[in-house]
Amino acid sequence: MGIRSLTRTEAERRAELIAVERYDVDVDLTALPDGPEVRSVSTVTFTCREPGAETFVDCAARVLSATLNGVELAPAEDGRIQLPALAEHNVLRVESVQADTTAGEGVHKATDPADGEVYVWMSFEPDEARFVWACFDQPDLKAPHAFTVTAPSAWTVTSNSGDARVEELDGSRRWTFPDTPPLSVYNTVINAGPFHEVRREADGHNLGLYSRRSLAEVLDRDADEIFTLTRQGLAFYAEAFAMPFPQRRYDQVFMPEFGGAMENYGCVTWSDAFLRRAAPTPAEHGLLARVLLHEMAHMWFGNIVTMRWWDDLWLNEAFAEFACHWAAERATRHTDAWASHLMIGKISAYLSDQGPASHPIHQPIHDVAQAASIFDNITYPKGASVLQQLKTYVGEDHFRTGMAAYFARHAWGNTTLQDLIDSLSEASGRDLDTWRTAWLETAGTDRFTLERDGDTVTLVAAADPRPQVLAVGAYDRNGDALERRALVRVEVTEPRTTITGLPPTADVLLINDDDLTFATTRPDRTTRDALFRTAAQLPTAISRGVASATVWDMLTTGEATAAEAGRCLTSVLAAETSDAVIEPYLTLAANVAELWAPPAERVELSAAVAATCRSLAGDPGRRQVALRGLARTATTADDLAWLRQQAGDDVDLHWRALIREAELGGGDIAAESDRLLTRDPDPDAWLRALTVRAALPDAATKAEVWQQLVVDRTVPITSVGLVAAAFWRPGQDELLAPYAERYLEAVPKLHQGGMILAMSYTHRLFPLHGIDPTYIERAREASGEAVPVVRLTLLERSDEVSRMLRARGTSA
Questions:
Q1: Given a cut of 70, is residue 355 above it in pLDDT?
Q2: 616 burial class (0-12, 13-18, 19+ CB within 10 angstroms)?
Q3: Which of 259, 324, 517, 799 has its CA 20 to 30 Å from the CA of residue 454?
């Protein structure tokens, strides 16, 4: 059965025609422990403004029966049930079954390898609720939902409104949840299984955490941290938006085989990969905080106020991504959150925004299939950076006032871009129409440099710049360090902006100091080499990050060599004082050596990173991160032997060392893998063993791993990236060449399983070695026939790898 994608025109017509009063959804999960089926009865009560007209309801599950006002309906076609001769007031009842709970959309059954227990989660963004029950699957038809769930008696069920009434049945239990507030269908959820549960009261909220039982010890270890962040986030957003979270109960459910996290109202679903089996690093603590605060921000941006159509996805995602860094910096211990954003998300957005997949933050979206393709670096990190600039541009007080007015005016409704712009314009007194057009409706990245003429300093844009406020910092040497003598903010409206207030002499001038705007920068030719030498001498994580981001951008555009970038990043690593960014810098430095360096320079650059790791390991606060970095970049038997000695009883580090040893082709890999499997309490340790096998330079093993990873898809979404990274290893080009062809053959099927799987498989499986520039062209040609989410992801990834090939000296 073909499944049609809802178009904007269809959604607008349907929203003009009907208003949904409520959903009553009865879900039966009792078949899942032994079988694949989820059964649903969806009763939708709605009105029609044009009695006698017709429309359709979305249902991509197998329909068992469907009636409208008691009259039987024709069978579903293309994932839709036609609704003829509508009355002024209508009751639709659809009974359906979804049996594809392994690889299908919307609902997923996972079996824990540790104990055989079954867990089920649902996730519906952007339009996957229709795969589980009948609904009007578009964001602007919001309505209360009442869920009744029948589940095995040993299971706990979670949903948006919490506080269910539970009835004992014969061998099962029925969970009846109170009505939700008016929600878009994609914001609803049901999760179920024999959970381990932890609850706590905080500031009038009833907070809950859930995980599979085999991870109970890990959840208990992290519970205090998660509860603290949750309390801090709820308090910050309540004050910042002048609207407390309106529901007492707030649950967070960590599920196996789930990708990322999903902001379901009052009941956030997480991948349980966020419950780290080894002690988390500072960067992993920071990521947990940012994701938690991102999903929480959606309670306001997305749930309470929802975009009318998917062209305003940024109203959800960019705001949540901006807000999570804002909240982390202001309300939690993660005060370097914006520095992490710069070195993880923002540099990725710079690259994406200068490639073939770039697009405006706000753009026309024809249908939901196209909408699935913009959950990307432009919508997320660029969008967050642009909103940070907007806060700077209008002033934080005005920004807060505008946000409060926006939520007060539009709570439980739907909005467009203009609604937000109007609120912020009224609060700030600034006409933001020009700002909106330049920043939200125009693709591309501004680029700035400085000109000095005597005591005159001029900021020069490469083209007509967007209206923005940025800062230039002036630094002087003090021994081996740089100290900031002045920071001057300038408002840019023209290609050339004279800067006043800088000291007449300064050893270093840093454009976009404090990282207030989304723009790349370049040193002039006379100061180019000084930038690479002095990045490590700047005094703060943000100033070092701004300089390092420039160096990275120069590498990706062919204006710097891998050797130059590698030396700069390792020097910053040696000087960095912020624990939050050590791991991102190590990742970048290792990527330079492994992915960007010419083959003849790869070992030397890897050895330099390995030496830096051995040095950093002497600091107890950096030890774990440094040893992980060494596990990736070790180049000698001595490195590996020293790493194992330092690892002691740390099973995670031993796995990492074994993956590297497998890649380098030494030792009795199989025997050591078996020993680690015996020692490792992680229920998913078999995936570490598979990753070891993926790294081996052996043809038969590569074939087995590819079959399991790509053809059979037995690797959970949470580990696809880990296994794929071990599979595509440098120096194995001859072994890997056949799989480059198999990747192209797989492109037409990469969308199967929904948006998150499509993005992950397309990006993670793209060949990194064993290809040449002609392959990039073939990949771009293959993208033309793919669905939008695969096509855009493939274009973006192929552009990045093409840049890697040029840096390696493998250009056409």
A1: yes
A2: buried
A3: 517
Can you list the pairs that 196-205 forms with residues at least 24 positions away whose Cβ atoms lie under 8 Å?
197/156, 198/223, 200/227, 202/227, 202/230, 202/231, 202/234, 203/231, 203/234, 203/235, 204/248, 205/230, 205/231, 205/234, 205/245, 205/248, 205/249, 205/250
Decide the pairing of beta strands 306-307 and 414-415: parallel
Coil/strand/helix, residue 421: helix
126 cis-preceded (ω within 30 degrees of 0): yes
**Is 460 buried (19+), middle (13-18) or exposed (0-12) by CB count in 10 A?**
middle
Which helix (DSSP H) or strand (DSSP E) does residue 761 occupy? helix 755-764
| Share of the chain residues as helix, strand and coil, in percent rounded to the nearest 5 | 45, 20, 30
Coil, strand or helix at 615: helix
pLDDT on residue 722: 97
Catalytic sites, residue numbers: 295
Strands 267-271 and 249-255 turn out to be: parallel
> Helix axis angle, 717-727 relative to 755-764, nearest 10°?
10
Virtual torsion, Cα 327, 330, 336, 339, nearest 10 deg: 60
Enter the DSSP assignment of 115. Answer: T
The pair of three-digit structure tokens given for residue 411, joined into one six-digit string: 């709570």
Tokens representing 489?
């903010």
Q: What is the Cα Rg of the chain in Å? A: 27
pLDDT in tens, 38-95: 999 999 999 999 999 999 999 999 999 999 999 999 999 999 999 999 999 999 999 9
pTM of the complete model:
0.97
Residue 465 DSSP label: P
Report d(CA 380, CA 237) in Å as an integer. Answer: 19
Quick check: helix, strand or coil at residue 411?
coil
What pLDDT shows up at residue 812?
37
Q: What is the pLDDT of residues 194-244, one digit of tens each?
A: 999 999 999 999 999 999 999 999 999 999 999 999 999 999 999 999 999
Cα-based distances in Å from 543 to 2, 461, 487, 702: 52, 20, 12, 43
Helices 562-575 & 579-591 angle (0-180, nearest 10)? 160
| Three-state DSSP state, 722 | helix
CA 811 to chain centre: 31
Which residue type is seen at 521? T
